Amino acid sequence: MKRYAVILYPDFSLQEITCLTSALTIWFGETIDFISSENREYRSEEGLRVLPTKTIDEARITDYDCVILPGTINPLPALFDIKLIEFLKSGLNTDVVFAAISSSPLLLSKAGILKGKKFTSGYFMQMADTFSFVEKENFLHKGVVEDNNVITGIGMFFREFAEAVLRKFGYDFGDNFMRYSPEEYTEEELTFYWSDDEYKEFLEELKGYTS
After folding, report:
1. Is 59 exposed, middle or buried (0-12, 13-18, 19+ CB in 10 A)?
2. From its phi and psi, is residue 111 left (phi > 0), alpha (psi between -120 and 50) or beta?
3. pLDDT tens readout for residues 25-43
4. First to last CA, the chain
5. pTM of the model
6. pLDDT for the residue 102
7. What CATH number is given for 4-180 in this structure?
8. Domain layout of the chain by residue ranges
9. CA nearest to 65, candidates 147, 162, 173, 149
């Protein structure tokens, strides 16, 4: 089993990472820690209210094989969160894989994780002009870029970003990751049954609601 963490901060985007987190947990049985600077509620850019499972004070970055950074429409609170940036910095010169999408590579740049590495991002290019820690010469205008232990992506390529992370860790996700068309399936293929054991388990659980 691999160890995964998602970093939470104000206005984080669920949509950009849920292909990845769903595949990790539902398909492959992994667990994910949701880590933030403070033990408080964070609201996603979609408006969902989320509580962390751990704070930065309770975790070490080297506890994880992969740290996932969702994008955010408002990166400044995270960018100027000293605790968060120091936490990311503690992953320098380690084997931790950083997976950052949309605007969140900006955080990796500030933490020094992207120093000397090729990367992409979905932030507005004026941000790269504004912050001297962004190495513009290493910015690639591609959907997903992998350089050693860092995977970066633009938000619209959330499936390809998820594929890159899953491939990095050797998961078999097939040839058509979350791109199936309903017209390609027969009625039989779209009719679902539990196994006998799964159905018995469901009936046992049901007793707790009906007895």
Report:
1. middle
2. alpha
3. 999 999 999 999 999 999 9
4. 37
5. 0.92
6. 96
7. 3.40.50.880
8. 4-180
9. 149
